[in-house]
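Entry 0007
Protein: inositol-phosphate phosphatase
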Amino acid sequence: MTNWHEVDNNAKTWINEAAERIRASFPKTLDIQTKSNPNDLVTNIDKETEQFFIGKINATYPEHKILGEEGYGDKLNKHAGVVWIIDPIDGTMNFIHQQRNFAISIGIYENGVGVIGLIYDVVHNELYHAVKGKGAYLNDKKIPDLEKVPVSNAIVGISPSWVVENKRFDYKLLSNLVKDIRGTRSYGSAALEMAYVATGRIDAYISLRLAPWDIAGGAVIIKELGGLVTTLTGEELDFLTAGPVFVSKPGLHEQILTNYLQPENL
Ligand code: IPD
Ligand code: CA
Ligand code: CA
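Output (structure tokens):
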């Protein structure tokens, strides 16, 4: 039987250590490389941070699996047992250009179900965390459950890329939504945008393509607060493959799905 209390404590200790190492890197020159395209960036610190977590997890929990963005973990095609889903730096472009607005994101899942979610805003020293069934917290402060909000009062996290012509989606679905809501925000870190939905700073977050490590930690926190994390058609995510993601307060989720994300609403 997994001692989840101990896993949670260890994860928090390691995330604090990793954050300290990231802060210590600020005065140093980064080694920056590109991945799938010239704007898909990775640094030596992304890689070292992932390796740091993998070293700790393997030494303490050799039976646990790891799905990490930079590929130093396991290759998984199904969820079985305990899986740590890790984004060592979510918001790498912000990390490089701004040295802020990025986070470490960790979701710990058991047989595909999220048990622990951690998002650490390294620069602001803000740890958003939840254990399934035990509430969600920002540092030591309990986060209240999410409340309903009408579309007309909603602020939605959405990248401008998704409201202009793009190869993944009929952008008019989202531009109709953008016309009706109170405002949009784009922070450049999916994990932080989920933390902001959790704390009510924004009301929903939509992306056409996110990977499991972008959202695994945030999904545990959002669900613990009564929010929803689904595909753009309202289906459950598998936390193994990349795809569209719709995070929202309750009520608003249903309104947006019904009134905006149906092809007949065009
Ligand atoms: C990215 C950020 C960004 C989102 C991208 C992600 P990364 O993660 O979360 O906000 O729009 O889709 O890939 O590459 O900085 O870890
Ligand atoms: Ca990411
Ligand atoms: Ca990353």
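Curator remark: Residues 69, 87, 90-92, 159, 188-190, 207, 210, 214 surround D-MYO-inositol-1-phosphate (ligand 1) (CB under 6 Å). The chain has a mean pLDDT of 95.
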